Amino acid sequence: MKKYQLMAPGPTPVPAEVLLAMAQPMIHHRTPEYEALFIEVRAGLKKLFQTGAEVLPLACSGTGAMEAAVINTLSAGDTVAVVRAGKFGDRWVEISKAYGLDVIELSADFGHSVPAERVAATLKAHPRVKAVLTQHSESSTGVLHDVRGYAAVTRDHDTILIVDAVSSLGIADLPMDAWGVDLVVAGSQKGLMLPPGVAFCALGEKAWTKTRTSTLPKYYFNLAEEMRCVVKNEAHFTPAVSIIIGLREVLRMLGREGIANVFKRHDRLARATRAGVEALGLELFAKATPSPALTAVVAPKGVDSEKIVKAYAQAHNITIAGGQGEMKGKVFRLGHMGYAAEFDVIIALAALEQVLADLGQPVDFGASVRAAQKIFAEKS
Length: 380
Ligand SMILES: *Cc1c(COP(=O)(O)O)cnc(C)c1O
Hints:
7-stranded mixed beta sheet; single chain; 14 helices; 2 domains; 4-stranded antiparallel beta sheet; about 375 residues; Aspartate Aminotransferase, domain 2; Aspartate Aminotransferase, domain 1; alpha/beta; binds pyridoxal-5'-phosphate
């Protein structure tokens, strides 16, 4: 028997209390029970998103909410600027082009980020840019983009800032209202420790203003219709009832830990993972601020990173992730978000040592674990 460990950067493990909550017999969504559930979830989501705005849950994966963000705030022929420094940045470009938008790509080499000054210069040169789209945590490279800096720029323009926070909500601090982020997109299967199937859009006032003139076609993802229902504690279409029940449990758990502690925990896990990986002489893929959600690691010279991923799975029954797109074969990614704690990091690192040794790499056994434990021993 090899105990299964899910250590990919999403989907992430679901805590037992959440699984049990979701295992209840189905309830109908047009009942007082669902209404009571939704009232609690609605309030908890606002706290988690650090906003006074309503958070709209949608029954789809994270990409559905990305698409919803675009089609509800923009019109055909609009120009948008996209921070493109990874596969998820590519996704913003692809969605925008699919809907006939003109895209200005603010590209950086993968592993790097785009400074806020470049966003400022772009808005100055192209005052007609209607929206700036970015990731917060770019999960393909393990980089955290400067959303606070971008928001400081877009605040003073007639431009909205749309942030994909799918792998940062409940992981890295993103105070939507305080920073002035106009639209935040998130998903259930990363920091929220839930099964995939629910995604969220939270729109501030400026984003809602844009929805009134948006002409892109929409039916299932009509956020004004969603909003009309949410304020009445109702669902527009059949919601993912079981996941919303799980979400109530998750919001209670995060509330008990305290959101500031949740961010601190992720920061510690990420620092320990990075220290462990570097203690083995491996290179981090992120050259800019690293994401606290996951660590992308460059495979040792001459080793295909897919082999590392495979060895984790076959020899140890641990799922990690490889590189996406042009990073395939070069990078492997360790997730440490959501239901993740100190000894999960120890498992991932100890297994990494075994895997590298099995692949014929020289390994100083215990070096990565020791480096991580030193971080955990620090008083926070
Ligand atoms: C996981 C993820 C998504 C959403 O992907 P789905 O497969 O559609 O859920 C979007 N953006 C980022 C940064 C992600 O990590």
